[in-house]
Amino acid sequence: MRKVIVCIASVALLTLSGTFARAGMYAGINGGAINATDTDVSYTAEFANSPDVTGEGEVTWDVGYWFSGFVGYGLDNLPVRLEGEVFYQGHDADTSTAYGVTGVARGERASYGLLANVYYDFINDSRLTPFVGAGIGASRVEVTDVTDNFKSVKDVVFAWQIGGGLAYAITDRVSADLKYRYYRTSDISDRVPDSYDSGDFLSQDIENSAHVILFGIRVAL
């Protein structure tokens, strides 16, 4: 009887100590919240017959959302995963400041894009596997109704992310991920003719960055 108990306990311990990190294909989804950083907005008025005039503003944002799907591959001889991620994210504007005056903003910022990510797993003997990662890609960003002269600004920009998290092995094929990432893109830019004089132009550059908390499910294929 004692041998049977020892055998059962040994199997249970081996099961509990298994990790999800493994070579081969996997796929999954992410969902979570975005806390966008305050956004600096740079304005430039380009006059045909006088020097340019520049100014600065700021936009703050409500907490937003992030949804994505991904497919990846774990390497055979290294604890490294290569991954492609398609995402959509958005959030509403909270306040807008221009010329020293702050008011309630009714605009929003939304984007979708593609990231090529690489992750390094810290393999151990538990079901929890810490990991760090980074990625680069591109995003199409649209900002609407944030400033008076630019009702809608659309731009395709370079995007990148860096972060880390923890994976919990639910089974030998299914893992739950909790991850943090800092996400940023190049500035969103636009240039339009001034409505009062066809020889003059207005341009602006809008920063775009956020802290993102994601919960994901990963399944080995």
Structure description:
- The chain has one helix at 2-17, and strands at 24-36, 39-46, 53-61, 64-74, 80-98, 101-104, 108-121, 128-144, 152-169, 174-185, 188-193, 201-206, 209-220.
- With 221 residues, it is mainly beta.
- It has one domain (2-220): Porin, CATH 2.40.160.
- Strands 1-4-5-7-8-9-10-13 form an eight-stranded antiparallel barrel.
Question: What secondary-structure arrangement, pairings included, does this model have?
Answer:
Layout: H1 2-17, E1 24-36, E2 39-46, E3 53-61, E4 64-74, E5 80-98, E6 101-104, E7 108-121, E8 128-144, E9 152-169, E10 174-185, E11 188-193, E12 201-206, E13 209-220
Antiparallel strand pairs: 1-4, 1-13, 2-3, 2-12, 3-5, 4-5, 5-6, 5-7, 7-8, 8-9, 9-10, 10-13, 11-12
Keywords:
221 residues, 1 helix, 8-stranded antiparallel barrel, mainly beta
- The ordered H/E elements are HEEEEEEEEEEEEE
Please write the CATH class name: Mainly Beta
- Major sheet characteristics: 8 strands, antiparallel, barrel
- The secondary structure category is mainly beta
Q: Architecture, according to CATH?
A: Beta Barrel
Describe the strand arrangement of the main beta sheet, using strand numbers: 1-4-5-7-8-9-10-13
Compute the number of helices: 1
Number of domains: 1
Distance between the termini: 39 Å
| Average pLDDT for all residues | 83
General shape: elongated
Contiguous uncertain segments of 5+ residues? 3-19
Strand content: over 45%
**C-alpha Rg, in Å?**
24 Å
Number of strand segments: 13
Q: Remind me, CATH topology?
A: Porin
- Helix-residue proportion: under 10%
